[in-house]
Amino acid sequence: MTHLDGNVLAGALADIFSVDLTPASARCTGCGAVAQLAEAMVYTNAPGIVARCATCDHVLATVVDAGDRLWLSLTGLSGIELRRA
Amino acid sequence: MSFVTRGFSGRARERDPRLPPGQTLVQDWPVLSAGPTPRIDTAEWEFVIRDETGADHRWSWDELLALGVEDITADIHCVTHWSKLEMPWRGVSVDKLFENVESQYDYVMAHSYGGYTTNVPLEDLLDGRAWIAIEADGEPLDPEHGGPARLLVPHLYFWKSAKWVRGLVMMPDDDPGFWEQNGYHLRGDPWKEERYW
């Protein structure tokens, strides 16, 4: 089966990132705990923002802001649950 | 009438040549941390170098100090744009740790208590350019500043000077550590302003 290029993601990603993600719940890939992103422990006195699992300290997400560029990593999260309004 | 105003003639406005591009001098020592501060007793502290055979070379706290603690004066440069100049440190040269470690690998992953990692080419750790630091400003390193021991690689941005360092794992390739996976430069030379990918 052939694949499509990344442009087909545009619609889906615009949907996701136009909403506030903090009430979304997700599973920590470290310990499996499911919690809202708003409950994460976030460290900001660092070269980037680091969100850690409130249960096990595992790194859930990082944001590195270089001004004109920004890196987002969500590798510590799986199954991010978003509720439609 | 003079066309040269005093504001343009003073030498005090010249930039300190010891400051890399984009850096600002600070007198205090900001604390940056990506997670909770580990509290490690030196009685339990251990340092390990793992080579490509999987063999571990281990040092207790006392064994580390027995290798010889040196005085170091170093300028440090944080990627968040502050620099601190002529800072007094004490630590054990990484050269001493590698005296009896044989490896064909060119890269190292530094691992810390608390899970932090950062990658460094081995050549950046040798020839008197890196230490396991145990004191700064005449005092034992506070846990907030990486105590009891942190890596000190002052010629690279300070995120490479891993706090709470616990070991080095030899690597065949320059795999990225924590910040290097998340946007920061693989090597981080402040004089080349290697901040991001």
UniProtKB/TrEMBL annotation, chain A:
InterPro entries: DUF6510
Domain of life from the UniProt record: Bacteria
One Pfam entry name: DUF6510
Designated name of the protein: DUF6510 family protein
Organism of this sequence: Antribacter soli
From TrEMBL, chain B:
Domain Oxidoreductase molybdopterin-binding: 35-179
Annotated signal peptide: none
Entries under Pfam families matching the protein: Oxidored_molyb
Region (Disordered): 1-26
Name of protein: Molybdopterin-dependent oxidoreductase
